[in-house]
Amino acid sequence: MNRAEKAALQLQAVAVLRMLKETRTYEELSAVTGLPAGDLNRYVNGHVLPGTDRASEVVESVGREALADELVARVEFDDEGYVDNSGVVFDQSFLDLVAPVAAETFEFESPDVVLTAATDGITLGAAMASFFDARLAYAKKSKETAVEEFIESRQRLASGIELTYYLPASAIDAGDTVLVVDDLIRSGETQELLLDIALQGDGDVTGVFALIAVGDEGMDRARAITDAPVGALTTFE
């Protein structure tokens, strides 16, 4: 790990701790993290940065659990099982914390392109692309007027509806590494289309990540297409 990567990890750990401190005393934060309250006070207030090992532990283990709990608290399901995650996808500061936690937890390789689907996946995609210093590309259900060449992927759903996504062909270059992300994975149909687009563009998929997985069907469907890591911040049954 070079100096810049070390500093970034330390700052990410501090950001996670500050989020946790918003609703906890230092004693409660100590119980969550296992770190001394005095050290936590110095980290949160910017007097000193945690060491690399501590920072990694905070981001990977404590950070994932804390963000997953926060995500569960913000997500609502209606009587028909539809998910309202607007409290998450509209909060860019929260998503900016998710990106390093996801990278540490699932060990995604740094991609050239973060690929998602418009529109709810864009804010998460932006956070992930910023963290990895990658390009952001998002597929849409309609073609851009001024674009001449597209990668197109379509699928007929069980309901009989045909779902089609389009991505400008210039968004992925042959040999690019591609991380597929989305806010929600349920059946896996959208992720399957995104993976197909990445492969049509001769990209090398480095992983699939979603904020929320509803059941295992979508995750299993993605794993059947790629050997790259597939993960979600939290799973609802």
Structure description:
Helix 7 links the parallel strand 3 and strand 4. The chain starts with a helix and ends with a strand. The mean pLDDT is 92. The longest helix is centred in the first third of the chain and has 23 residues. Helix content is 45%, strand content 23%. Helix 2 crosses helix 3. The chain is globular, with a radius of gyration of 19 Å. The protein has 2 domains: 61 residues, no CATH class; 149 residues, Rossmann fold, CATH 3.40.50. Strands 4-3-7-8-9 form a 5-stranded parallel sheet, sandwiched between helices. The protein has a two-stranded antiparallel ribbon with strand order 1-2. The chain is an alpha/beta fold and 237 residues long. One of its GO terms (molecular function) is adenine phosphoribosyltransferase activity. This is Adenine phosphoribosyltransferase. Keywords: Glycosyltransferase, Transferase.
